[in-house]
Design goal:
There is one protein chain. It is built from six helices and ten strands, in the order E-E-E-H-E-E-H-E-H-H-H-E-H-E-E-E. About 30% of the residues lie in helices and about 30% in strands. The strands form two sheets. Strands 6-7-8-3-9-10 form a six-stranded mixed sheet, sandwiched between helices. Strands 2-1-4-5 form a four-stranded antiparallel sheet, with helices on one face. The protein is an alpha/beta fold and about 240 residues long. The structure holds adenosine-5'-triphosphate.
Length: about 240
């Protein structure tokens, strides 16, 4: 039986701007399993980022329930959600959000300094192939290298979950593939449950499961019997 990491039950998220209500999520039931790599696909505005933010404890659902293992995140206080994020969740976003005045090593140390069980920043940077770039500043690095620093920062606390929102969205295909290789490597080496949002339909071919969104709901879930290596993905 699969080991369930996340379970959502009829999750909705409603944004109200003036009189206008937007149903960003309109009833999502989903399970995510330990160690899997899941890709979330769907049109712009279909609710992917909203769900990722709720799973990652950055936001609350409007209704429904969300569990991380046995822990009910649904009504957790902001303070407890902060602790949950710190202890269990790594985030990777499209734009790397590195501190420009800090070196790669120092950017990663921002996280390792406050985590309960971190790996050394140097080890995290070595994991993403940047052992020889640790003292470079973001402005001295390519987009792909900066994204790899962001991934090193995310994994340095040894998170159980890695949530990636358009991690290759700002990258050309060659650098994008390198970033995907790093994500796959981390997934395989550490067993980190990895969720990747993408607009690039090709990337679904490296996932264990592909979860398709439409109008705030999951329209399909597919299992890949065979997966492609990132280097085999062309876009
Ligand atoms: N803070 C907010 N206030 C109001 N509406 C919001 C807010 N955040 C998201 N929405 C709306 O919720 C819907 C779902 O947005 P979401 O970002 O989850 O979609 P998405 O599938 O991730 O889209 P994209 O692929 O473009 O990132 C959209 O209609 C969006 O405009």
């Amino acid at each position: 039986m699969s080991d369930t990491v996340f379970r959502t039950e009829d999750v909705t998220k409603v944004y109200q701007t003036g009189d206008v209500k937007v149903f960003a999520l309109a009833g999502v039931d989903l399970e995510l399993y330990a160690g899997e790599m899941a890709v979330l696909l769907g049109p712009s505005g279909s609710g992917k980022s909203t769900l990722l933010n709720i799973l990652g404890g950055l936001d609350h659902a409007t209704s429904g329930r969300v569990w991380f293992r046995e822990t009910d995140l649904t009504d957790m206080s902001d303070r407890d959600l902060t602790r949950y994020r710190r202890d269990y969740v790594g985030f990777v976003f499209q734009f790397y959000n590195l501190v420009p005045s800090l070196s790669a090593r120092e950017n990663v140390q921002l996280v390792t300094d406050v985590s309960p069980n971190p790996m050394p920043a140097e080890d995290a940077l070595a994991q993403v192939g940047l052992a020889d770039r640790m003292d470079h500043f973001p402005s001295e690095m390519s987009g792909g290298e900066q994204q790899r620093v962001a991934i090193a920062r995310a994994i340095a606390k040894r998170p159980e979950i890695l949530l990636c929102d358009e991690p290759t969205g700002a990258l050309d295909s060659t650098t994008g593939v390198q970033v995907l290789e790093v994500l796959q490597d981390i997934n395989e080496r550490f067993g980190t449950t990895t969720v990747i949002i993408t607009h690039n339909a090709e990337i679904q071919r490296m996932a264990h499961r592909v979860i398709q969104f439409q109008d705030g709901k999951i329209s399909s879930v597919a299992i890949n019997d065979t997966r492609l290596a990132p280097a085999e993905i062309v876009w």
